[in-house]
Structure formats: structure tokens, C-alpha cells
């Protein structure tokens, strides 16, 4: 299939691009390097050096023989969007092109409005471009488990059957996000659902939990193919941060009581979930929703696992409960369903000591570059 990946420079976008080429798909990526710019502005560094998209595509072609077509530009700009869609005429679009960090969205008015404008206007442009250039194409949109929040009942996959005063109706599962970033993802879902009903678009919304790891079958072929790796408080996700903290000798920063529970997945499983969704498209006029994670852990569980694995390779790892900068439940019920992707054939890579040790051994090579002052900045929600 011709697959267009929006946000192809990102932590997940670039590994997805390589992976899909190995499965016989024709892949194009688009990105405006927003994430790199925001990291520079916020003075946070990636752990590793990451070549730009043209350099990575050239390296990947040299190593694998597979081609990724690169388009550098801003997906907020309709002319750029129209040019890319008109030229490539995708059969599937994977939409990662969003400001993805909850703490960034909570920094200031400026970062809040950037998150709102970027995320919603790119989603709207994708919808209009599909309508104009490839109305039968399947949109695979990265949503987030954070759209649901932490309700005191089981979380279904996207939809809820409601019986009210003797009558029944199926609704989108109630959403109540805990950050502005997560709220923009709810708005994305609502926009897509509106145009699914109105224009009969075909959409898969992947409600993804926090992702960890760096290594995939493709990134392992050369260090220049690895995705960028954030460990700072703003753009780093919790398990990647804990691995870097363990190596740096920084106490693991458990926010508050540490009972916050989420659904996690290995980066390898993100690629497989996205590929399975592309290869088994939603029907016209269908908004299909999958909960995309493989295991649930509390922050305390993750800290204990990182401490144990670190100790096995001789690292001294301390755990510290720090003031929670976020407004979130620190002890709560959490039982989300996640059978849809397993039914499509997902075979999960679970979090093991081997996975953590492999990550730590990679991070050890960059130990001297870790900047301790970027680890805990205390970006407050309130
Ligand atoms: N946490 C700590 N210590 C830290 C960092 C985080 O205790 O040093 C806690 C947070 O308070 C939170 C949990 O770990 O309870 C997860 O935080 P996170 O930063 O790993 O993830 P989050 O901000 O929720 O966002 C990430 C991605 C986002 C994706 C989301 C999936 O950045 O793009 O949508 O995970 S989910 O969390 O399921 O909504």
C-alpha cells in the first residue's frame, strides 16, 4: 500500500516508516521538525544525536535497499498538505503529527495555544486532504489512553452501550483528560467522528499508552537509525526517564504516591499495532477504536522493576517520591479492555529484565552526556 506517515521525524514516526518499507509498503513521510524546535526552545537535549530525515532516509536505503520519500514542511499549511497528498495519493495515512507532551501543553499560554492550534489544525487538514485527494484512504490516528482519564469503572475500547430510561444507545466512551495535550486528542476524536458520520471517512483511532524503548528490528541495524530519546521532564515518558535516571545515579522521580496506573507498550508493539491497523482497514463510515497497550503498571511497579534490573548490572538505584507536579489521581481503579489488536494478530513484547538491561546498556554509552538539571523541573499543572 502507499502509506503516508505524518510526523515521520518523531520518536515513533521514523521507526514506523522503516518498518513498513520492510513489509513491502511504499512509504512517504512528512514533518516540519517541530519536536526538535520545541526541544531547543525549552533547552532540552536528546540523549543521542539524530540525523535529519534526508540523512536517515539515505542511510536506510543504503543499508536495506528500501526507500522512504521525505517531505519537509508544515502540515498546518494547506498548500504543503495539498501538494503532498496530490503527489503521493496515499491509501493509508498514519497521523502522528502532533505536539505529544502533556507537560509541554501545561507550561504557559504560548505552549497551550501552540498545542491546540497545531494538533487540531493538522487533524482538520488531514480530513480535508483525504476528502479532496483520496476519499477512500484509511486514516490511522494516534490517540491516547489519556483521553479516558481514570474512571472508576472498566474502560471499554472506544464505545459504551448505555441504557437510559429503558432505551439503549451506543456512545463514544466518556472522556475526561488530565492535561490540555490529552484534551486536544479528545477534540481530534470528535472531529474525526463528525466527518466519519458526515462524509463516510474510514478511521482507526489508536488509544495508545506511554511507549518505552528504542530498539526495533530496523533501528538495530545502525545507531544512526535510532529514534531520538528524551529523558527530560517535558518530553520524556516515564519508563525511558527512569532508565536514564538509573544510569545517571539520579533517584527515580516517582511523582506523589506512585499509584498512578497506565497501559504501557514496547516501541516494537507500537509498530506492529500500527501496521496491523493499516493492513486491516476500518470500513467506510466507520470510526474503529483500539486501546493500544499490552500491560498495565503503576509508577511504583515501574520504579521497582528499573531498580531490580539496574541492581543486576551493578547500578545503585534509589527511588524518591517527589512532589507531584501534575493534577492526577495517585491511587485509583484502572481496568481498560484491550482485545482488538490482539484479535488482529498482535503478539506482545512484554516488559522484562532483558528489555530494561538492553536499554540501560545503551544509555550507559551516553552517560557523560546526561544533563541532570533536565531531569526534574517541576512543571506544575496548577
Ligand atoms: N510520572 C512519574 N515520574 C516521572 C514521569 C512521569 O511518576 O518522572 C508519572 C506521571 O505523573 C503519570 C505517568 O507517570 O502518572 C505517565 O507519565 P508519562 O509522562 O510517561 O506519560 P503522559 O504524560 O501521560 O504522556 C505519554 C506521552 C503521550 C501519550 C501518553 C499515553 O507523552 O504522548 O499520549 O503517554 S497515556 O499516558 O496513556 O495518556
- Roughly how many Å is the radius of gyration? 20 Å
SS-derived structural category: alpha/beta
Helix percentage:
25-40%
DSSP strand (E) fraction? 15-25%
Query: What is the H level of CATH, i.e. the homologous superfamily of the domain at 2-221 and 268-293 and 334-348?
Result: NAD(P)-binding Rossmann-like Domain
Description:
Strands 3-2-1-4-5-8-12 form a seven-stranded parallel beta sheet, with helices on both faces. A three-stranded mixed beta sheet has the order 9-11-13. The chain has a domain at 2-221 and 268-293 and 334-348: Rossmann fold (3-Layer(aba) Sandwich), CATH 3.40.50. The protein is an alpha/beta fold. The protein is built from twelve helices and 14 strands. It has helices at residues 13-22, 34-41, 53-64, 78-88, 102-105, 109-133, 180-199, 238-248, 267-279, 299-312, 340-344, 353-365; strands at 2-6, 26-31, 68-72, 92-95, 138-144, 159-164, 167-172, 202-208, 211-212, 252-255, 261-266, 287-292, 295-298, 319-322. Bound molecules: sulfoquinovose-uridine-C1,5'-diphosphate. Sulfoquinovose-uridine-C1,5'-diphosphate (USQ) binds at residues 100-102, 144-146, 182, 208-210, 237-238, 241, 253-255, 260, 262, 299, 326, 328.
Which helices and strands appear, and what pairs or packs with what?
Blueprint: E1 2-6, H1 13-22, E2 26-31, H2 34-41, H3 53-64, E3 68-72, H4 78-88, E4 92-95, H5 102-105, H6 109-133, E5 138-144, E6 159-164, E7 167-172, H7 180-199, E8 202-208, E9 211-212, H8 238-248, E10 252-255, E11 261-266, H9 267-279, E12 287-292, E13 295-298, H10 299-312, E14 319-322, H11 340-344, H12 353-365
Parallel strand pairs: 1-2, 1-4, 2-3, 4-5, 5-8, 8-12, 9-11, 10-14
Antiparallel strand pairs: 6-7, 11-13
Amino acid at each position: 500500500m502507499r502509506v503516508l506517515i505524518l510526523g515521520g521525524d518523531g520518536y515513533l514516526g521514523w521507526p514506523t516508516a522503516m518498518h513498513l518499507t520492510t513489509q513491502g509498503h511504499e512509504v512517504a513521510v512528512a514533518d516540519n521538525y517541530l519536536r526538535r524546535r520545541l526541544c531547543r526552545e525549552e533547552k532540552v537535549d536528546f540523549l543521542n544525536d539524530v540525523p535529519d530525515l534526508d540523512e536517515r532516509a539515505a542511510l536506510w536505503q543504503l543499508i536495506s535497499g528500501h526507500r522512504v520519500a521525505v517531505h519537509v514542511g508544515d502540515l498546518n499549511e494547506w498548500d504543503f498538505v495539498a501538494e503532498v497528498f496530490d503527489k503521493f495519493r496515499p491509501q493509508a495515512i498514519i497521523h502522528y503529527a502532533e505536539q505529544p507532551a502533556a507537560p509541554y501543553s501545561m507550561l504557559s499560554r504560548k505552549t497551550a495555544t501552540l498545542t491546540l492550534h497545531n494538533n487540531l489544525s493538522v487533524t482538520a487538514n488531514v480530513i480535508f486532504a483525504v476528502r479532496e485527494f483520496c476519499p477512500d484512504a484509511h486514516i490511522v490516528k494516534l490517540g491516547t489512553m489519556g483521553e479516558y482519564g481514570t474512571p472508576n469503572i472498566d474502560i471499554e475500547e472506544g464505545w459504551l452501550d448505555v441504557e437510559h430510561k429503558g432505551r439503549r444507545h451506543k456512545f463514544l466512551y466518556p472522556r475526561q483528560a488530565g492535561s490540555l495535550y490529552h484534551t486536544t486528542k479528545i477534540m481530534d476524536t470528535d472531529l474525526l467522528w463528525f466527518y466519519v458520520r458526515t462524509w463516510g471517512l474510514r478511521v482507526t483511532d489508536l488509544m495508545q499508552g506511554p511507549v518505552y524503548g528504542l530498539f526495533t528490528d530496523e533501528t538495530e541495524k545502525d545507531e544512526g537509525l535510532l529514534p531520538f530519546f528524551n529523558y527530560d521532564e517535558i518530553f520524556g515518558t516515564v519508563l525511558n526517564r527512569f532508565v536514564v535516571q538509573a544510569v545517571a545515579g539520579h533517584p527515580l522521580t516517582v511523582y506523589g504516591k506512585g499509584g498512578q496506573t497506565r497501559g504501557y507498550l514496547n516501541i516494537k508493539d507500537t509498530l506492529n499495532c500500527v501496521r496491523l491497523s493499516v493492513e486491516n482497514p476500518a470500513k467506510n463510515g466507520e470510526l474503529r477504536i483500539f486501546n493500544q497497550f499490552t500491560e498495565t503498571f503503576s509508577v511504583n511497579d515501574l520504579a521497582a522493576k528499573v531498580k531490580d534490573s539496574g541492581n543486576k548490572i551493578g547500578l545503585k538505584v534509589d527511588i524518591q517520591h517527589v512532589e507531584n507536579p501534575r493534577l492526577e489521581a495517585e491511587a485509583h481503579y484502572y481496568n481498560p479492555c484491550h482485545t482488538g489488536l490482539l484479535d488482529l494478530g498482535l503478539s506482545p513484547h512484554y516488559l522484562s529484565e532483558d528489555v530494561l538491561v538492553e536499554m540501560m546498556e545503551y544509555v550507559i554509552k551516553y552517560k557523560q552526556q546526561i544533563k541532570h538539571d533536565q531531569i526534574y523541573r517541576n512543571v506544575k499543572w496548577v
